[in-house]
Structures are given as C-alpha cells and as structure tokens.
Amino acid sequence: MKIGELSRATGVSVRLLRYYEEQELLSSHRTPGGHRTYAADAPQVVHRIRVLLDAGLPTRVIREVLPCVHGDGVRVDACMADHLRDQLRGIDQRIAELRDTRSSLAAILATTERLTERPATERAGLTPTA
C-alpha cells in the first residue's frame, strides 16, 4: 500500500503519516523508485496510534506501548498497565494544577470586576464632596 492509499484508507494526512514514521510509530519500505510502501496491517496500526493519541499519550510513550496494543487499540498487554497508570497520574496532576491556576485567575478577575463596579472616585481612594 502506498502512502496516498494509506492516507485515504485512514483519513490521516500524508504529512501526518510521515510524522508517525519520523517518530518511529509506523514503518514503511522503499521501492526501488524510492516510494514508501506499507504493510497490509498499516491502517490498523494508524488507527491504534490515533486511539493512543486521543487518550493523551505523547508519541514517545506510544512508541513504547504500541507493540503491546491489540485489536482496535483499547486493549494493551498487562505488562504495560503500570506505564499507563503513570501516564494517568500525570494527567490527573496536570488537571489539579489547571484547577489551581483557574481558581487564581478567577479570583483576580472577580477582584477586578468588583473594583470596576465602584465609582472612579472610590477606586482612587477619594471621597465625593457635597
């Protein structure tokens, strides 16, 4: 299967397929004319890559996990479970950090909005004279 055929079969751009090769997620062979050809199971491999990317895994982790992925990409050998748990913990930590960041930003915005609702003289620390 040529790269254009693989692109059409998977809905993944030729450029992205080349990137997967650069990241050692997908392999091809070269014809004597220099064209890339892929094995018959390449569409399934691309699907698995997409499933793992959608799960938030970086390509360096996918490279390690991919040989242990089976079927439609949602079943991985048990030996990789700890690795995936580590990735999940990292995602949970990033979510917690984002929640903290969001709370800080919301507090700044709330203070800003409270201050802008007050008359300009109060914001400047002046009291109106009668």
UniProtKB/TrEMBL annotation:
Asked if the keyword Magnesium belongs to this entry, the reply reads no
Keywords (A to Z) from UniProt: DNA-binding, Repressor, Transcription, Transcription regulation
Q: List the InterPro entries.
A: DNA-bd_dom_put_sf, MerR-type_HTH_dom, MerR_fam
State the PROSITE patterns in the record. HTH_MERR_2 (PS50937)
Q: Which residues form the HTH merR-type domain?
A: 1-68
Gene3D superfamilies named in the record: 1.10.1660.10
Instruction: List the Gene Ontology MF annotations in alphabetical order.
Output: DNA binding; DNA-binding transcription factor activity
PANTHER family hit by this protein: MERR-FAMILY TRANSCRIPTIONAL REGULATOR, REDOX-CYCLING DRUG-SENSING TRANSCRIPTIONAL ACTIVATOR SOXR
The molecule here is called: DNA-binding transcriptional MerR regulator
Organismal lineage:
Bacteria, Bacillati, Actinomycetota, Actinomycetes, Kitasatosporales
